[in-house]
Design goal:
By secondary structure, this protein is mostly helical. The chain contains 43 helices and 10 strands. The strands form 2 sheets. Strands 1, 2, 3, 4 and 5 form a 5-stranded mixed beta sheet that branches. Strands 6, 7, 8, 9 and 10 form a 5-stranded mixed beta sheet that branches. It is elongated, with a radius of gyration of 37 Å.
């Protein structure tokens, strides 16, 4: 009979004790098997203290049900009478479904949690070896392993061991397991065991004494023949033993698996022999090993097999580890390794990745290991395989700030504890934070968060990840500032030598100069110096992420010297999150943008304005420039103002291009290179058109007041008319005029020629602003013809003398400045020439092909590699543009979409009209965009135009970074360029030459 009110009171009690399904829990507690336990409040309190009371109760029921009759009373009595045992058993059952499964299969193993001697609170390899001693095969080894794991998990969930101790115990258990597995393998093949000495070297987290519950155990095998045994046969025997050891641990049996044994960190990885002699290992490391392999050897530790051979191996490789920072390729290798390896993480998982995601465990581990490699060559106190011990030693030696080290230690411990409890639940290898409410609740409670476990967990996790993300870069640089500023007496700090070594390791080619810049920026007690000390650790990291950190730091010092006394400058960098990173990217990406900025440093304000990087349209620019011209006293002052606007807008365009190409923490890299090219081309075209308009207005006003005796227009040609200007492009133009009514033709001609001469002069007067070069060589008769003609003169010339190449050049003609009506009538005049009715005749097609072939042989600079010349080389700009222009001239009369001055638009129209197949159109477009970006990159990096890749290594690397290639990938970049342009040339041969 049920007592009235009992159900509701039991339901409430269970809810208060943390059960999420009180009804199911009540039914379980009513089972006969728990009759001795159900009314004991101590049991409910203990269940309520676990990570998941529902899971703990289900596991307890299964364990009690699995007990032989004679053992059940013993278990329940012990559970009620012994609090330490009760906490340990229920704690494990509430945190790990997998260990509950093990206890249900092996119901007597609960006794492993009953008694704890003093040694049980801190077991080592010897204790675990005793726990595995009865294992004679893979199945019994798994059972014994899980029994030992029960005790480790119990200490972990009850707080008897902290996360570092737990990780060390797991590594010791792995050591004992490898030894047991090797013993089983040797017993199975005594002849092989007699032929060789085999040592097992633990690597990674096992070697570093900081293993997870479920992780690959990384190993390297080293062997030597026994006595007079033949080396080849000894290596074969050792390989069989090593392979058997790996299978014993890794294979799935009726008792599951233990963990995979991974030997891929060995010399040559999977392609190399599984087992080598010591001399073979050393030969590889001395000649072939890469930096990451020495980084991996930081954690090498002999754990099983022949102890003397293991010790010899460690003694032999250790000096090589600490010499790694002196290797020739150390800096580029470090730059490569420092770039986050998140590309392979599915996008949906990045935010849940504890290990590899932003602010994850790998950030801390990598930072610590890098600093060990840089400074460990001169300081043996840093020679530790444990991340937290190494971090403590780095702080003690002044290599890392003490406060930073303390914050990282706390964050690392929290993230590792999360990782442990996530893996413990089902004993599966994962680094992903679960998404389910129940899983997050259990995880939060396991970490001691009981009020609102899910909300508290997310808050704490994000907080610690944010700390790691923030400190990851500062960790390298803040001690450098402490070394030069020396503001805290008694604080351990880097020596000048150590600071120089660190800067060199992070990519600075002239560490002595870098230290001088840091001292100038950060020394002193002024507010300016204090803000610089806050900013510089992050800025230095961004500089080091570029191809030329030295240039970035030097540029920052120059800008700061120029603007340091203006209150808004440092406030902008400190308070506007994106401004500092944007400035770092711009200053370290090449010469052009910093040169523009240093001529007028106040333009740095553009970088902090969310709208600041967006290009200004032509109408806006013309309005600003014409207003400035109107205020000026003379033509030179007027055009100086116009050129000042142009300089500022060139900086805006270059900065937006660089930041879009590099990406920042807040704004990912632009993935469509065509969009970047189009934005730059349009922005530069609008800017040059507005500048020329200003120069024309200034010249007219200076000589004639408000009205010129002749109407005057500037026609853009080439890339200018096509809205495809690059940073190094001249402005190709034609000048056209038409005398006003009643004005003598000679007077009009003189006025037009004076305007042309004055505009060209004013735009090229040497000043601090970059000149705008006007090129009128595409005019009728070329350099021999008059600079400016009347509209009638153009009409007469084109009617009588026009050649095929001139009609082709006119495909790009578009009015850019001056009299709009006159410009429109000029365009109307030339349309029949560039889009001839019924298309080009065969003679004209042959003439255009002949000219192109001649240009390819005559105009390519002597010594230039035709496969790498962006303009005239194979599959470059000229190839694509002539192909598209031939299609325009042949079909433009019938296809309105082809009547455009823009290459990419015309190419898309040709494809839409069925004149170019999809694959060929995409190939031409890709090549044209890439070649354009190469030319832009060269100008941005070198500060002067160029049509081919730079020969200087740093400049080439900077071009690569702009094009999206990380450190050490310039060879890949050049290969890609050749491949893409080779395919484009094949299309050109087909479509243009008809091959």
């Amino acid at each position: 009979m049920t007592v009235p009110g009992r159900r509701s009171s039991t339901f409430s009690r269970l809810l208060r004790h943390g059960f999420t399904d009180p009804s199911a829990a009540g039914r379980l507690l009513d089972l006969p098997e728990l009759s001795a336990l159900r009314d004991d409040s101590v049991l409910l309190d203990a269940l309520g203290a676990t990570a998941d009371p529902d899971l703990a109760l289900r596991g307890l029921v299964r364990l009690v049900e699995a007990q032989p009759d004679e053992e059940r009373q013993t278990l329940t009595t012990t559970l009620l009478s012994a609090k330490p045992f009760r906490d340990r058993l229920l704690g494990v059952l509430g945190a790990s479904e997998a260990l509950a499964d093990h206890l249900a299969r092996h119901p007597r193993d609960w006794q492993a949690l009953v008694t704890y001697e003093a040694v049980d609170l801190n077991p080592g390899v010897a204790e675990f070896e005793r726990g595995l001693a009865e294992a004679t095969d893979a199945v019994s080894l798994r059972v014994s392993y899980r029994r030992c794991l029960l005790a480790i998990a119990a200490r972990d969930v009850c707080g008897t061991a902290d996360v570092a101790q737990t990780a060390a115990e797991l590594a010791d258990l792995a050591t004992a397991t490898l030894r047991a597995a090797l013993a089983i393998a040797r017993t199975a093949a005594p002849a092989d065991a007699a032929h060789c000495r085999l040592a097992v070297i633990a690597m990674g987290k096992c070697g570093g004494h900081e293993l997870n519950y479920v992780s690959d155990v990384d190993v390297i095998f080293v062997a030597e023949p026994v006595d007079a045994a033949e080396e080849g046969k000894a290596m074969q025997a050792a390989t069989r033993l090593a392979s058997h050891l790996m299978r014993i641990c890794s294979e799935t049996t009726v008792e599951g698996t233990i963990w995979p044994v991974d030997a891929n960190l060995r010399p040559e990885g999977r392609n190399g022999p599984l087992v080598r002699t010591l001399s073979s290992h050393l030969a590889y490391y001395q000649r072939w090993a890469k930096t990451w392999e020495f980084q991996a050897l930081l954690k090498a530790r002999a754990v099983a097999g022949d102890p003397e051979l293991g010790a010899e191996y460690i003694e032999a490789v250790s000096p090589l580890v600490w010499q790694a920072a002196e290797r020739e390729n150390f800096v580029p290798d470090v730059q490569k390794m420092r770039r986050r390896v998140v590309d392979n993480i599915p996008a949906a998982q990045v935010d849940r990745e504890l290990k590899l995601g932003p602010g994850g465990l790998r950030d801390v581990e990598f930072a610590v290991q890098l600093l060990q490699l840089v400074h460990g060559r001169g300081d043996a106190t840093l020679h530790s395989g444990k991340t937290l011990d190494a971090l403590k030693a780095l702080a003690a030696g002044g290599y890392v700030g003490r406060a930073d080290a303390a914050q990282l230690d706390e964050a690392y411990r929290f993230l590792r504890a999360m990782e442990h409890f996530i893996q413990l639940y089902r004993l599966r290898r994962t680094h992903l934070v679960p998404e389910g409410e129940a899983d997050l609740r259990r995880l939060g409670r396991a970490l001691g968060l009981r009020t609102d476990p899910v909300a508290e967990l997310n808050k704490e996790w994000k907080r610690h990840a944010s700390v790691v993300r923030r400190l990851h870069e500062k960790l390298f640089y803040r001690p450098l500032l402490d070394a030069v500023a020396q503001l805290t007496p008694g604080e351990a700090r880097l020596s000048s030598k150590a600071a120089g070594q660190r800067l060199e390791a992070l990519g600075y080619a002239d560490p002595a100069a870098a230290l001088r810049h840091l001292e100038a920026l950060a020394s002193g007690v002024t507010r300016k110096a204090a803000i610089q000390r806050t900013l510089l650790p992050v800025l230095l990291g961004w500089f080091a992420d570029s191809a030329d950190p030295d240039a970035g730091l030097l540029g920052f010092r120059k800008v700061s010297d120029a603007l340091g006394k203006t209150p808004w400058y440092l406030r902008l960098l400190r308070d506007e999150g994106a401004a500092a990173e944007n400035l770092a990217r711009v200053l370290s990406a090449g010469r052009m943008a910093p040169d523009l900025l240093l001529r007028a440093p106040e333009a740095v304000a553009i970088l902090g304005d969310p709208e600041g990087l967006k290009p200004r349209g032509r109408d806006h620019l013309e309005q600003e420039i014409l207003a400035a011209v109107g205020r000026a006293e003379g033509a030179e002052q007027a055009v100086a103002a116009a050129r000042g606007v142009r300089r500022r807008e060139l900086f805006r365009t270059a900065a937006a291009d660089l930041i879009g190409s590099y990406g920042t923490e807040d704004s990912p890299r632009e993935l469509d290179p065509g969009a970047l090219v189009d934005r730059v081309g349009l922005a530069l075209t609008d800017l040059n058109a507005a500048t020329i308009s200003g120069a024309v207005r200034a010249a007219v006003r200076e000589g004639w007041g408000d009205t010129l005796p002749t109407r005057f227009a500037v026609i853009g040609m080439g890339r200018f008319g096509g809205h495809e200007l690059g940073y190094g492009s001249d402005a190709d133009v034609l000048f056209v005029h038409e005398p006003r009514e009643g004005v003598d033709e000679q007077e009009a001609a003189r006025a037009a020629n004076q305007i042309v001469s004055e505009v060209r002069r004013l735009l090229q007067v040497p000043t601090a602003d970059p000149p705008l070069l006007i090129d009128a060589d595409l005019r009728p008769e070329g350099k021999r013809g008059p600079l400016v003609r009347t509209l009638k003169s153009y009409a007469a010339y084109y009617q009588r003398w026009s050649l095929a190449w001139e009609s082709q050049a006119l495909l790009r003609a578009e009015t850019m400045a001056g009299d709009r009506d006159l410009g429109a009538r000029f365009i109307e005049l030339i349309d029949p020439l560039r889009y001839p009715a019924e298309g080009l005749g065969e003679d004209a097609v042959r003439e255009i092909r002949r000219l192109k072939a001649r240009m390819e042989t005559e105009r390519l600079p002597r010594g230039a590699d035709p496969t790498l010349h962006a303009k005239l080389g194979r599959g470059g700009l000229s190839d694509v543009e002539w192909t598209v222009q031939l299609i325009q001239m042949r079909h433009g009369w019938a296809e309105p979409g082809l009547r455009t001055t823009r290459t990419r638009v015309a190419l898309a129209a040709a494809h839409a009209a069925g004149l170019i197949p999809t694959e060929e159109a995409e190939t031409l477009d890709e090549a044209w965009v890439l070649a354009t970006r190469v030319r832009n990159a060269v100008m941005l990096v070198r500060g002067r135009p160029g049509d081919t890749f730079p020969s200087d290594g740093r400049e080439l690397a900077a071009v690569g970074r702009y094009l999206g290639y990380g450190p050490g990938r310039v060879g890949e970049m050049v290969d890609d360029y050749r491949r893409i342009t080779r395919r484009a040339r094949a299309v050109v041969e087909d479509l243009f030459y008809g091959a």
